[in-house]
Amino acid sequence: MKQDVFITRMAKYLPNSPVSNDEMEEYLGKVAGSRSRAKSSILRSNGIKKRYYAIDKNGKSTHTNAEMTAEAVRGLENDNFSLNELEMLACGTGSADQLVPGHSSMVHGLLG
Predict the structure, then answer these.
(1) Structure confidence by residue, pLDDT tens digits, 22-39
(2) Rounded CA separation 27/51 (Å)
């Protein structure tokens, strides 16, 4: 039996405050203790003005991949839709927090 499927909502979750181009090295570190010489040309080329890191300035993780995914899923809820109505959730990532249990299982567990 063929059944049409539609994407009706999308959500995102961006961790922490936005980090400007000038602040990047405060989070990621410097190259051999010096500011990157290629940074300005790369940033000019890619056009990115800010980004969100799941780490603090000391390099400590603030969110796991699964936590960020669960927060994005929670962002789907509104007055017309509750997560209790969700019939299926499929997750995938190229950078899971751990091998076992899998990413989807971790997200499902965080969502309760």
Answers:
(1) 999 999 888 888 888 888
(2) 11
